[in-house]
Each structure stands twice: as C-alpha cells, then as structure tokens.
Batch of 3 targets.
Target 1
Amino acid sequence: MGAGLSGVGFNFVVSQKYARTEVYISRPNTNENKFIFDELLKQKNKIEAVTGDLEWERLNEGKSSRIKQELNDVSLYEKKDWELMINFMVESMSTLQAAFKNPLINIGIELKGNL
C-alpha cells in the first residue's frame, strides 16, 4: 500500500512464526532512505503515541529501512490463528497509516525542496 511518498510503502507480512505490519522505506537512493528513517525517528514519541511501541530498524548494512509492529507466535498455517492475525493487522495498519501520513508528507516536501 502506498504511503504518499515514492519508495515508501505500508506492508502486511505473514509467516509461519509471525504477522507484521510495517513501513518499508526502499527508494533507489540509500542516503534518501536513511534520511527518511532518521526524520521519522525524530518523531518517534509522537508516532508511538498513536501506534503503541514499534521496532525501528534502520538496517545500516542495507539500502532499505523498516519500522514494524509484530505479533509473534502465530502462524499462517494454523487456522486457529487467522482471526487473531487479521484483527491485529487491520488495527495495526490503521494506526500506522494515521501516525505516519503527515510526517511522510512533510518529509516528501522537504526532499523535493532539496533536489
């Protein structure tokens, strides 16, 4: 799902061990990705007031960065976990979008001004 800023997306991830929602920052330019992450991190307290605790992964060894919320000990392969996973992911994604929308718009404006 688009985040209103090119190369930044809201993603759902489900695996054998967890369900996750994330803001994934993956523009072609590594420096821009780290700039976006760092600018969001400056607003961590304000963002987490809406979302609850998040895991902030700058991923210094790679091009991309990620900010995620995860529900552990659930599995895509266990039907009994599906309702819990769906409820978590819908609520989590709603709060992620609400919390990140304006900060990402402002960062996009700042990036355009620096080009």
Target 2
Amino acid sequence: MGRRIEPVCRLCRREGIKLFLKGIRCSGDKCAIERSNQPPGMHGGTRRLKLSDYGMQLREKQKTKKIYGLLERQFRVFFSRAARKRGVTGEMLISLLERRLDNVLYRLLFVSSRAEARQLVNHGNVLVNGRLVNIVSYLVKPGDKIELKKKESLINRVKANLEMLQDRSIPGWLVLDKDLLEAKVERMPTKADAGLPVEESLIIELYSK
C-alpha cells in the first residue's frame, strides 16, 4: 500500500486549518500553522487566488483524505460504498470513514494521531471480538468489542495517551472502560459525531460530474 512521505505540517498549511496529523504536537506551540498560517511554497504568502466551484470541491475532498490518511484510490472505494447505501451519500461517507479501525482507536484516545493508530494495528496489537485484526480499514459495527494485547509496554503507552488527551472527549457512539482498556461500539457514527470541518456535499458534487 502506498504511503505519504511529505512533511505533514505542509498539509495543514495548505488547507489553512489544523488537521491534527502529528498528535500532541498539533496542540502545542510547536504547531507549524501557529507560526506560519500561509500555504507552503515560496509564493505561499503572496498568492491568494479565489477558488472556482471545482477548486472548492477539490479542496474539501483533499482535506477529508488528509484527515483520514487515505490515498485517492482508497477514498474512491469508500465513496463507492457510500453511494450504494440508502440515505444521504455524504453522511454515509463520513459514517464509513469513522468506522475504520484506525479512526476508532484515535477516537478512543488510545493514540494521539491516526498515523500512530495505523502503526498499532499493523503491528498486531488490536483485537476485535477477541480476534486479532491487523487491517487498518476494517469497519467496526455496533456490538463489536475492541481491546488491546495485554503487553505492559503497550498498556502503559495507551494510559499515558489517555492522560495527556483527557481534555478531549470520546464520541457517544463508543463506550470505553478506562480501567480495562476495553471499548464497545454502541451504534453507527453520524456526521455530528465526527465533528469534521468538512462540507461533504461538495465532495458529492465533485464525484457527480
């Protein structure tokens, strides 16, 4: 699978908002967008072009891809799934993306970024319903139980993350037992649960052309 290798702080500056791609660092004074809130590149501070309708649609898609750490082909797969479901396509898309296992670990505050969550899953440290799952795009469903391997170093690391991220809240569709570090999926996530700075309707318009 392909992966991004460019500096992720440039991605936030390109979109003009914090995408929280570097975990704790994004909340501190070391955040790049706090020091320079302008597009990357030598002409970033001088070029402020008005976007066309297509440009705005493209930016919303790119922003969503960056938030969830997806490449174009992966994102298209999720869009196709959402388009086949009953309901509002944009909301279905956000719901599917939220159900990804790497995102679930991020929402549970086990990790400080989705990139760290992908590493956790790839290394075989996550169990769903008692079975090892090492596929980051695995979609959880209501009733699923999520837990970690009982390794002391891993448990200590996750507890440290929970302590550092205690000012963040866990969405209502997930329930976490912080003592046992076990979580349960209560229901399907909604657009409101995600709380993303994204206009998903523009993404639908882009793919509808």
Target 3
Amino acid sequence: MNNKITIKPYAPNIGAIITGIDLSKKISNSELKIIKDAFHKFLVIFFQEQFEISPENHIKLGKCFGDLHIHPAAPKMKNFPEIFEIHTDKNSKISNGAEDFHSDVSCDIKPPLGTMLQLHILPESGGDTMFANMYMAYDALSNPMKKFFR
C-alpha cells in the first residue's frame, strides 16, 4: 500500500476517511484498488484534503464503479448530464428535495450502487449528510421480517 495514503474508520458501523489521494489528478490503478477496497469494506468513504475536482475527473472516478445514473428530473451541470447540481445558501430550507429523510433513487428497479458528493462551500456547523448501514439494519431484523422482505 502507498505509504502516504491513510484510511481511518469514521464511525463504528459505517464509513472511512481517506487522505493522501488527490482526486483532481489522474488516479493510478493501485490508488483505485485502495479506493474500491475501502468502499467495499466501509460502504461510505470520505476524501479529505482535496482541491477542485473537475467534472471530467468526477465522472471518470464514478465510471470506475459502473455505469452512471442520470436522474431524469434533477438539475444537471451544463455539458455534464451525469452531474446533479444542488445550489443552496444559508437561507435555503430544503437542499435536496426532501425536508427530513431521503434515499437516493432507491425506488428504481435497479438503484445505483452509490452517490458521489462534492461539496464546494461548507457551513461552519450543521449541513451534515447522514448515512445508514442497511446491511446491519437487515441483520438486526427478526427471521420472520427477513423472510417478509425477501
């Protein structure tokens, strides 16, 4: 493993923070393997210490995980329909079309593997995106409930 790349668990049940990979540049095969392995192990990965990531690099990384989903009703970035743009400010009441909870396109017959978020301006506090480990949620169900959902 590359000595400068670090992977640190984020929470006990989901997520990891990756540092030492610059997503604004070409990603090597060894870096991509590290990213994919971390994603499969931790389910959510956060890249810290990043510079501006071009739409081309964002899309290129996403395609390493499979075909990209183009949301039929979402506002798209000019010339990059794969990128769903959300613009909010301190007065915004809703930032994603839902006030409380949502799950990205989970209603599709074959939902996407995941979602890639790139934040440009962060609030000093709040504005968090929360994640849930649905494998753990399923494992915690009783056997009759598991059978019901199969």
